[in-house]
Amino acid sequence: MVESSRPNQRRVIISRVQHMDSTQYHTTLCRDCLFASRYQNQVCTQCGSERVTIHDELSQLNIAHLDCDAFYAAVEKRDDPSLRDKPLLIGGGKRGVVSTACYIARPYGPRSAMPMYKALKLCPDAVVMRPNMEKYRVASRQVRDILETATPLVEPVSVDEAYLDLSGTVRLHGRAPAITLASVARDIERQVGITVSIGLSYNKFLAKMASERDKPHGFAVIGRGDAVAYLHDQSIGAIPGVGPALANRLKVDGLFSIGDLQALTPQDLEGRYGDTGRHLARLSRGEDSRRITTSRPAKSISAERTFDRDIGDLEALLKRLWPLCEEVSARLKSKSLAGGAVTLKLKTARFRTLTRTLTLNSATQLAEILYRTTKPMLERELKRGPFRLIGIGAGTLSESAVADLPDLLNNDLDQVKGVEQAMDAVRAKFGKKAIRKGRGD
Ligand code: TTP
Ligand code: MG
After folding, report:
1. Active site residues
2. What is the pLDDT of residues 228-272, one digit of tens each?
3. CB of 71 closer than 6 A to ligand 1?
4. Å from CA of 71 to ligand 1 middle
5. pLDDT digits (tens, 9 = 90+) for 296-320
6. Structural domains in the chain plus CATH codes
7. Residue among 337, 410, 423 at smallest CA distance from 375
8. Which of 151, 255, 142 is nearest to 190 (CA)?
9. Is the pTM higher than 0.85?
C-alpha cells in the first residue's frame, strides 16, 4: 500500500506514544515471549509460558542487579552437552576447593569454597573439572557487551555480576526497564548459552537482594510497597558490609534479623553503634543511596619507599610505615573506596621481595587500621631484614559506604574514625603538613 509519508509517520509516532503510556500499567511480564500486560495472570496469555513475573510496581523500577547462574559450571555445560544433566563441580582437583557447584549438585550440599574432598563425599557422582579462566573471561565480556545494549550505565561487580541503571531507557527502547531486562536475559541465553538471574528494584541493595531471591533463571522484583516487609525476615548478614564479626556482636545484643533492626529507631541504633548504626538503620528500611558508576575501581591502591640505606631496626621501619599508611588512606578517602585486604611488601637487602596479605573483617580506609594491620606483619618478618624497601597496599576495594564497621579487634573504631576525620579536616583547610601524628618522621 502506497501512502504519503506524512500520515504514515504520524501513525508511527502516535503508536509509540501509546506504547510508552501503556508501560505505566504493566504488572505481568512473560520472560519467554516478553509480552507485558496490566492484568495479573500466572500463565502468559500469549505463549502459555509459566515464566511470568508479577508485581504491582513492575514498570516503575529502574535499578537492576544481574548475576549469572553457577557461572563457571554453566559455561562448561554449554560446551559439553553430555554434562548437562550431571552434577558438576568446578575446582582445583582433589586437594583444592570448589569454585562453583552446578544446580544439580547443590541439593547434595557442595558449595563454593568448600574443600573438594568434602564436596565429593557429599556428592560422589559429581564430575570434577578444573576451571578454564580464559573461557570465563570471554563469556563475561560477551555478557557485558549485551548489558551495554540495554543501558550505558552498567557497573560490573565481579566476573559474573553487574548493576544496571535503566532510568531514562524508556525513551531509548520504547518499553519499560523490566521488559528490556527480560530481553537482555533472553539475549544472554541465546548468544552466550548460559542463564542469568535478575533483580529489579529502586536501589542497589534491594536489586541484589532480589536477584538472589529467585535463583537460578529468575527475575524477582522488590518495590517500594513491599521492601520493608521483604527485608523483615532476612538475616542481618545480608546487609552489605556486615561480616561475621559485626553479625556476632549484633547477635550478642539480641539482633538476628533485619526485622530486629527495623524494630529499633534510627536514633536508637545510632546511639548504640554510631555510624554503623546509622548504616544499619537506613539499609534495614530499604534505603540505599549508592549510585551506579561505570568507571571500574582500581584493583588496589599502594605506596612504597626505597631507602637510601638498608634498615633492619623495627622502630625505624615503623616510622617509614606510618606515612605510607597515611598516603594510601588519603587516596582511598579521595576516591571513596575502602580496602578489604591489606598487603605489606618488603624487599630484603638481597633483593628478595616478601609480601604478606591479610583479609579484614570489615573493609577500611583508615590509616590507623592499615597501620595496626601491617605492624604485626612487619614484626613477624623482621628477622628476614635488613630491608631496602617497604610498601603497603589496600586491595579487594569496595565503596567506602560500607567501610570501617566495628570489628571485635578494633572496638575503639568510632574514636579512631573521629580522630582521623578531624585530622583530615585540618589538612583540607591548612594543607597536608598542617598536622601530623607523632609516628612519622
Ligand atoms: P557466584 O556468582 O558467587 O556463584 P555462581 O555464579 O557459581 O552461582 P550463583 O548461581 O549462586 O550465582 O560466583 C561467580 C563465579 O565466581 C563462580 O561460578 C565461580 C567463581 N567463584 C570462585 O571461584 N570461588 C568462590 O568462592 C565463589 C563464591 C565464586
Ligand atoms: Mg553467579
Report:
1. 161
2. 999 999 999 999 888 888 898 899 999 999 999 999 999 999 999
3. yes
4. 6
5. 667 899 999 999 999 999 999 999 9
6. 7-68+135-221 (3.30.70.270), 71-132 (3.40.1170.60), 228-284 (1.10.150.20), 300-430 (3.30.1490.100)
7. 410
8. 142
9. no
